Amino acid sequence: MTAWQARAEPESRCPAQRGTRVEPRVILVPDIIIKDEFVVLRGFMADHTLEDIISFAKRRGFVYQTSAIYGGLANSYDYGPAGAELLRNIRNLWWREMITKRSDMVGLDSQILLHPQTWVASGHVASFTDPLVEDKLTHNRYRADHVIEVWLKGHPEKQASIVIENLNTAQMSAFITDNNIKSPEGNDITPPKDFNILFETAIGAVSGQKDVAYLRGETAQGIFTNFKNILDSTRVKLPFGVGQIGKSFRNEITTGQFVFRTLEFEQGEIEYFFDPEESNWEDLFKSWQDSMWKFVTGTLRIREDHLRWRRHTDQERSHYSKDTYDLEYQYPFGWKELWGIAYRTDYDLKQHQEHSGVGLEYTHPQTGKKFLPHVIEPAVGINRLFLMILADALTVSGDRTVLKLSPELAPSTAAVFPLLANKPELVDKARGVFNLLLGHGLKTAWDDRGNIGKRYLSQDEIGTPYAITIDFDTMKDDTVTLRDRDTAGQKRVKIGDIINTIHQS
Ligand code: GAP
Questions:
Q1: N or C, which terminus of the chain has less Cβ within 10 Å?
Q2: Using an 8 Å Cβ cutoff, are 62 and 78 in contact?
Q3: Ligand 1 atom index nearest CA of 340
Q4: Is the beta carbon of 340 within 6 A of some atom in ligand 1?
Q5: Cα(first)–Cα(last) distance of the chain, in Å?
């Protein structure tokens, strides 16, 4: 058992030294789980509860429970029309800021299914594990550290005596026994076991000739396995980074944290390669921390007082990592990891070189020195960015709900309304304005249903920064009403000036 397994919030699931294989169990849930699990909503001050956010996200087409018509699937969600746009905008901004705008970065799009040896070399097959306990009566399964975390919230007198992050499985087991800790259902639980969260699948059309394969547990390994390809096919030179966005899969035990912790999720990962003799890792690490902070507070406009850095303790840090920090956000269920950054040294390249027998060394262009570069890895969950953005932007005042998204994130930049849907001249004029905005690349919504006030409120809720109404005055003087989402202020603007006005706001 290594330290990472014992964290209260062990997101950095680098492979530990050993793991016990437990058969995964699919948990079917009747509806989006919002209260039955025990990690959520315990004593934190936040603007909104997780229930508020879940119900808002469903009502306005951001997130739906997956396959709800069949009763749903635990820890699995679909993104609706508004959510799909928001997710896409997050991805695009991450790619733009982390890759496109930097001359020292290149992108990659590797497979979800890699050669199975990849996961042996990386250590995931042996030990990509979480500590699992089982309710002896209901057979529901939970993460041991989460059970302890919740128990501690009800026993503040014990909190000073224990740091969950520092407990290994044996110590967790002892703590559970000593304190007679029960499952969330109040029943006895089994001692913690190491549960491998790597998703296994099989390749092969012919029965009996199947080969085990794994859905990737992190996108990072595709970067390491392509390191030589990138060196050979591009003109990169150290220090440089490779970034990619893509789906990863983990057989998560804990349910009830909405899109924060899902079986299938998207990661935006960067491996930043450097020569440790030429670059100071601490400087690079700090500079990546600055980029992460700037992205979250600047590009995504998240409130700084909802963010903090937390350094991993020696016990919880991955065995390959020399230093790890989490950028944490204050989610409705407490401070949790949003974005991790680790100094992974040359651990992964070394492992892949040994297991594949292929040389992965970099040759210094001037000196000819051959060596395995070291890496700094900033790794974020796109869905965690998504949940953070919803939680931060959701503003309720009286009967008005406004999603105060930055215009770059908003599912639509503008909405166009003909004042009356049964006046063809207004509808035609409005269609012209709609097409004008689309022609300028602005994602534009159309709404001709109900009264104008309700249409404004509806667009406020999904974060559309501008609403444009075409009325009878438009027919006379070619002006429209341009309404600002945040102030609800309105002004008349010439149709020919709409684009500039939006761009300048
Ligand atoms: N390559 C390093 C790595 O995968 P990690 O901390 O396990 O490190 C990186 O994962 C990020 O991926 C986390 O900071 C988190 O934002 C996101 N993440 C991890 N597990 C997740 C899950 N089950 N659901 C949603 N996001 C997850």
A1: C
A2: no
A3: 14
A4: yes
A5: 54
Cβ atoms of residues 445 and 463 within 8 Å: no
Which amino acid belongs to residue 478? D
How many angstroms separate the Cα of 345 from the Cα of each of 124, 353, 375? 18, 14, 5
CA 12 / ligand 1 centre spacing (Å):
7
CA angle (454, 386, 51) in 5-degree steps:
65
11-to-49, 257, 324, 364 alpha-carbon distances in Å = 22, 13, 12, 35
Cα of 279 to ligand 1 centre, how many Å? 27
pLDDT of the residue at 487: 94
Please give the pLDDT value at position 69: 98
pLDDT of residue 46: 54
pTM confidence score = 0.89
CB of 250 sitting under 6 A from ligand 1: yes
HSE at residue 288, side-chain half, CA atoms within 13 A, is: 33
* d(CA 259, ligand 1 centre) in Å: 12
Q: Minimal CA–CA distance to 53: which of 331, 405, 252, 303?
A: 331
C-alpha span between 435 and 421 (Å, rounded):
17
Residue 239 C-alpha from the chain's centroid: 26
- The SS3 assignment for 489 reads coil
